[in-house]
Amino acid sequence: METAYKTHLAVEVTPDLEGKNVKLAGWVHLKRDLGKVKFLILRDGSGTIQVTFRAGSVPEEIMKLFDELTLESVVQVEGVVRSDPRAP
């Protein structure tokens, strides 16, 4: 479901999109900060997906913005799909 804000819904991000760039939009459902790695569970109308931010791979400005996010904040993220069996 491509729009100006997103190219996919959370449920549409499957292993066959591995290595592809996607844009998602939704609400902050949960977030975890492990220092150099931060996790955000993004929720949209179709379900949830984990978004990972790694220091050095993401601009410092984005890492700082992560800290300002509250639960239910509306966000748009863009990045490369990487599957990980440990992800929720």
> What class do helices, strands and sheet pairing give?
mainly beta
**Total domains, how many?**
1
Helix content: 10-25%
Number of helices: 1
For the biggest sheet, the summary is: 4 strands, antiparallel
Q: Judging from the principal axes of the Cα atoms, what is the shape?
A: globular
**Count of extended strands:** 4
Radius of gyration, CA atoms, in whole angstroms: 12 Å
The CATH topology comes to OB fold (Dihydrolipoamide Acetyltransferase, E2P)
In short:
This protein has 88 residues and is mainly beta. The protein has one helix at 60-68; strands spanning 21-33, 37-44, 47-54, 74-80.
Description:
There is one protein chain. With 88 residues, the protein is mainly beta. The protein has a single domain, classed as OB fold (Dihydrolipoamide Acetyltransferase, E2P) (Beta Barrel). Helix content is 10%, strand content 41%. It has 1 helix and 4 strands; from the N terminus they run βββαβ. Strands 3-2-1-4 form a 4-stranded antiparallel β-sheet. The longest helix is centred in the last third of the chain and has 9 residues. The protein is globular. It starts with 20 loop residues before the first strand and ends in an 8-residue tail after the last strand. The mean pLDDT is 94.
